[in-house]
């Protein structure tokens, strides 16, 4: 019994890590070795792929633009969602339930449906090929998600706290920033993490809304994979580098991540 | 919590409403407009009425990709939900390893979707990939670019790899909210492992599992990037799911009208299913 | 003024959206006049308000039209009549 208890999660984690290992393995091989045949670890260990990525502006600009639209999106999503989530968690108002459901349907809308009109829309307002276009477009699914998670966390804060603060003479904005936000700090952190995550992993819209200047790293990768032959080593190294930011942020929210996925309602 | 009725709360919601409406309603209206017209580029449009809808609804190509989509979603739900619950049940409830476990398990969720596709592509290559080479060495002929079954197997395996952790995390969060006293009581009563699961653990996980099914249904229903990078929808059309077919029609064949009509139908299906799930979930909340 | 030609408006689709918008405004006015939404437990076993009933009617009508297009060659207004009957039934019993 004790053994099986450990066995299942361990096997699962091994299963999760195998493809990641294979990617890392590929990234340290030379192109010749990769195409030469199967080998479970690099025989001629090389960091050429990483050097190429970190010194070639086409590559590292991809990282910069990815990170910039993800950060802009996270800031916009969280700051817009905060007051809205407060309204949903504290008040009933005309059409509130339908509004909440409508917000949610956008989280569920397939991005493929919107790709083409998005291209037209953001060209028309002159934001095409800037990080802002992608950041705003990702609000489509990140804001509903942020409202949903924050609402769950806020519902856990007793209402008496609001009322006491108002009696003590706090205005709404001061109460919100000074008292309420610190109380749900972990919720805000988790929400920011989720916005970061979904903006970071999405590619279809990001690719549609950029061409040269603001091209995200993931799109640079797909182009390299197809145009300059079959440079698996470069592709693998770029892939490894896209995993790192996620792995770093995940460490900060490790104790709250499950609660966030349950939309703050466990 | 009892909520006060206050229509001024609308002012707090307004910024979100405007921003999301800008992103959702304008494009949706545009898609509706496209879906009733024919275009030859240069913003020249001709009214076609409901012709595209009729074409899409009666085309065997659409039926086939819809069927593929539902099959895929059903398979991955049938694998990921039980597997995720099983793993969550065997995870230690406390201790230093829990954090490490959670972080490692969440890792696949943070990898950009096309990297996931590329990663499994490299993994499954028949001559140099660990999976492909391994299977062939074991005497199982495997080539995901040639055999439809192998392509399906790879896509499903990739999705299980990518998303089972989400179910694990949710189920685990549900399990952790059960007070230790419940287990003690069950032990005193001499309850079997199964009845502990059935009467203590499952009811507590009810809500999170609804969320898990909802999220997995929606995300798998709109899956695009990962299978596109992995198989490109092939071999033939074997793994051409709805989104892939949609983008093929819109960008590959420049058939804007058909693509738009397909988008609307696709969107309506998503809307219906999410409404059903949402209603079920809210009903669970009230009880 | 923004260039909106890319949205490819036609008067037919514009009418469609105006009707939907008018319905939403009418529902708001109704809610304002008699708040509460007339909640009840309908035959589907759901607790619905009139906003929910409107949503169920609209979504159902969309699927009725699609079904009509997909399964018959008859003119579309047949589907419209069926949708109106359906919407009436929803508002009466669901």
Automatic annotation (TrEMBL), chain A:
It is a multi-pass membrane protein. It is found in: Cell membrane. Residues 63-253 form the ABC transmembrane type-1 domain. Keywords: Cell membrane, Membrane, Transmembrane, Transmembrane helix, Transport. The chain crosses the membrane at residues 7-24, 67-88, 100-120, 132-154, 175-201, 232-253. One of its GO terms (cellular component) is plasma membrane. GO terms for biological process: transmembrane transport. It comes from the Bacteria. Pfam families: BPD_transp_1. Belongs to the binding-protein-dependent transport system permease family. This is Binding-protein-dependent transport system inner membrane protein.
Automatic annotation (TrEMBL), chain B:
It is found in: Cell membrane. It comes from the Bacteria. Residues 66-277 form the ABC transmembrane type-1 domain. GO terms for biological process: transmembrane transport. The chain crosses the membrane at residues 12-36, 70-90, 97-116, 149-175, 208-225, 256-278. It holds the Pfam family BPD_transp_1. InterPro entries: MetI-like, MetI-like_sf, Sugar_ABC_transporter. One of its GO terms (cellular component) is plasma membrane. Gene3D superfamilies: MetI-like (1.10.3720.10). Keywords: Membrane, Transmembrane, Transmembrane helix, Transport. It is a multi-pass membrane protein. Belongs to the binding-protein-dependent transport system permease family. This is Binding-protein-dependent transport system inner membrane protein.
UniProtKB/TrEMBL annotation, chain C:
Keywords: Membrane, Transmembrane, Transmembrane helix. The chain crosses the membrane at residues 6-33, 54-70, 76-93. The keyword Transmembrane helix applies. This is Small integral membrane protein. The lineage of its organism: Bacteria, Pseudomonadati, Pseudomonadota, Alphaproteobacteria, Hyphomicrobiales.
């Amino acid at each position: 019994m004790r053994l099986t208890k450990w066995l299942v999660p361990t096997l699962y984690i091994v299963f999760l890590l195998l493809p990641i290992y294979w990617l890392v393995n590929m990234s340290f091989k030379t192109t010749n070795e990769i195409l030469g045949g199967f080998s479970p670890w690099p025989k001629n260990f090389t960091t050429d792929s990483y050097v190429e990525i970190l010194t070639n502006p086409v590559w590292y600009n991809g990282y910069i633009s990815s990170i910039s639209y993800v950060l802009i999106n996270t800031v916009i999503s969280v700051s817009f969602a905060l007051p809205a989530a407060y309204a949903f968690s504290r008040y009933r108002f005309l059409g509130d339930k339908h509004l909440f459901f409508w917000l949610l349907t956008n989280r569920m809308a397939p991005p493929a449906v919107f790709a083409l009109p998005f291209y037209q829309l953001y060209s028309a307002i002159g934001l095409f090929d800037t990080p802002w276009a992608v950041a705003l477009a990702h609000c489509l699914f990140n804001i509903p998600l942020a409202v949903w998670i924050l609402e769950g966390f806020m519902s856990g804060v007793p209402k008496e706290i609001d009322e006491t603060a108002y009696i003590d003479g706090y205005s709404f904005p001061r109460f919100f920033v000074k008292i309420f936000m610190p109380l749900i700090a972990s919720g805000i952190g988790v929400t920011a993490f989720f916005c970061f995550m979904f903006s970071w992993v999405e590619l279809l819209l990001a690719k549609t809304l950029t061409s040269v200047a603001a091209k995200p790293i993931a799109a640079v990768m797909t182009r390299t994979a197809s145009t300059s032959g079959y440079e698996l080593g470069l592709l693998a190294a770029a892939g490894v580098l896209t995993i790192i930011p996620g792995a770093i942020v995940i460490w900060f929210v490790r104790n709250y991540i499950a609660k966030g996925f349950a939309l703050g309602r466990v | 919590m009892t909520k006060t009725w206050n229509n001024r709360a609308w002012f707090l919601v307004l910024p979100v409403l405007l921003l999301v409406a800008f992103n959702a309603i304008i494009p949706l209206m545009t898609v509706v407009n496209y879906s009733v017209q024919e275009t030859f580029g240069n913003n020249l449009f001709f009214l076609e009425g409901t012709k595209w809808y009729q074409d899409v609804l009666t085309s065997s190509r659409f039926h086939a990709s819809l069927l593929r989509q539902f099959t895929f979603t059903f398979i991955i739900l049938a694998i990921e939900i039980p597997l995720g619950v099983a793993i969550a049940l065997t995870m230690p409830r406390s201790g230093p390893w829990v954090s490490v476990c959670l972080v490692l398990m969440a890792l696949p969720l943070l990898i950009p979707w096309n990297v996931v596709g590329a990663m499994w592509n490299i993994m499954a290559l028949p001559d140099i990939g660990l999976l492909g080479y391994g299977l062939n060495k074991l005497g199982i002929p495997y080539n995901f670019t040639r055999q439809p079954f192998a392509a399906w197997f790879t896509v499903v395996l990739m999705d299980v790899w990518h998303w089972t952790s989400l179910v694990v995390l949710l189920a685990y969060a549900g399990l952790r909210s059960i007070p230790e006293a419940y287990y003690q009581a069950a032990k005193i009563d001499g309850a079997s492992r199964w009845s502990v699961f059935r009467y203590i653990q499952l009811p507590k996980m009810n809500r999170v599992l609804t969320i898990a099914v909802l999220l997995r249904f929606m995300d798998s229903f709109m899956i695009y990037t990962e299978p596109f990078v992995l198989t490109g929808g092939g071999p033939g059309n074997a793994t051409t799911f709805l989104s892939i077919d949609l983008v093929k029609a819109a960008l590959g064949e420049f058939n804007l009208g058909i693509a738009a009509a397909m988008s609307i139908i696709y969107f309506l299906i998503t809307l219906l299913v999410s409404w059903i799930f949402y209603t079920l979930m809210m009903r669970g909340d009230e009880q | 003024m923004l260039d909106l030609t890319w949205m490819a408006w036609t008067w037919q689709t514009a009418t469609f959206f105006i009707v939907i918008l008018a319905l939403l405004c009418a529902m708001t006015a109704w809610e304002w006049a008699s708040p509460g939404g007339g909640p009840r437990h309908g035959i589907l076993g759901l607790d619905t308000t009139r906003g929910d009933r409107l949503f169920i009617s609209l979504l159902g009508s969309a699927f009725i039209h699609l079904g009509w297009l997909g399964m018959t060659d008859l003119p579309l207004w047949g589907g419209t009549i069926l949708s109106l009957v359906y919407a009436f039934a929803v508002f009466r019993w669901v």
